[in-house]
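Tutorial handout. Part one gives the primary structure; part two gives the three-dimensional structure as tokens.
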Amino acid sequence: MSPPEDEIDWSKTTWDGARREQLYRWRKLSLYEKMRAVEEMGVLAERFAQNRERRGQRTIKPE
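Part two.
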């Protein structure tokens, strides 16, 4: 039998459980880590928009 730490917490495998886990992990981050994550998400969003534009797909331009 596997040790308890290897057991799956099935409550985290639902939509609500996964969302709760995301929020829990986000709250554990420091302010610096949160700001850095937001900046990285912005850069990634810009890169996705550039790729879509380059392929001739529709994009939504932020104002």
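Part three, for discussion. Residues 31-54 form the longest helix (24 residues). The radius of gyration is 18 Å.
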